[in-house]
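Quick one: structure tokens for this chain, please?
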Amino acid sequence: MEYLRANAKDAALATAETFSDKKQVWVVDQEDGFVKATVLEDKGESFLVSKVTSHEELTVKKEDTQQINPPKFEKLEDMANLTYLNEASVLHNLKQRYYSTMIYTYSGIFCVAINPYARLPIYTKEVINSYKGKRRTEMPPHIYTVADESYQTMIQQRENQSILITGESGAGKTENTKKVIQYFASICGVEGKSADHGAGLDEQLVQCNPVLEAFGNAKTIKNDNSSRFGKFIRIHFGAQGKIHSADIERYLLEKARVTYQNPEERSFHIFYQMLKGMSQAELDECLLTNQPANYALLSNGDVIVDSLCDPELFAETKQCMSILKFTPELQMKIFKFTAGILHLGNTTLKSNKRDEGCTVDDSQWIDKACHMFGINAVEMTKALIKPRIKVGSEYVHKGQNADQVGKTVHFFIRKY
């Protein structure tokens, strides 16, 4: 299977290579991590070696070298079967498979995935069907195997199963999570599904991801679509093994990103999607312009990301919200609240000369924000400038300087 398993010709060439585990070792390299080297002389506690690629000769301690596996283990599907299971051999095996566009590799019970930063044809309906009900050893490594093993174990043992997807930013956690959900939705079906009730639970389960990504993902230095929150997805199955219901818990949302972004990053996608994807009538209803530079909360980092088309993504977000049974009225309320955050972020303050207090420099932004929130602008301004606090048994109004009010505004934005 192309993109999943090494072809027979490459395997034959690897097996035909001459090899001696006493004459070749892995040595540390500053650029490549580890490189192959030929042992020229055994000096007791050290080796005189020559790097295979650069032919550089150097003396290294034996304890700093690592043993090389025979060529027959090249591009091994399960690294637990390596004769020498060391760091250099694991990295080499992963690298060689990655160079052959095989992004999945087993390591015992784990499945290692390396982000190819490209769309590979390994998630089609045909591929899903080929993994259904198959044993781990029957098929090449794939996230579908992990999903199917979990499902089959649940059905046979009648016990809850968990799949942990973890990795650094840009590793592909979000994409692989979507593939697991796609697999379950495809092979299991949904209890009581009827063609008369619009999108079924399986479709809703798959389509929730664009909405989560719009409101919870952002561009970082490493990744243009990085999840800035953790999520626990719980899928409930009925007695017949079909999907009965599902819920998602989110945690550790990076709220600080709303008020500040590094120069090469940007805020959550939804802000840019709205500004670039809304019709003029929708922009007018939210009192917005289509220029991110007009809003202080979006002016710190990058605005345009080449790999993301904000108008298309906004259309997809709205479509998925509709599939999830968000009415047009509820969608507009959500967009208005989001627009209110942008307006509130433009609030500017000026200090009073008479005291340590301050006033709002331009009230239009608070007025617009409060209109979007559906609250009284005058009361909101009072609460920010002179908050009401309890002293003893009485309530008094406490004056705040511009710095304090600015921090309060940012706290309010991050809170909601």
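The chain has a mean pLDDT of 92.
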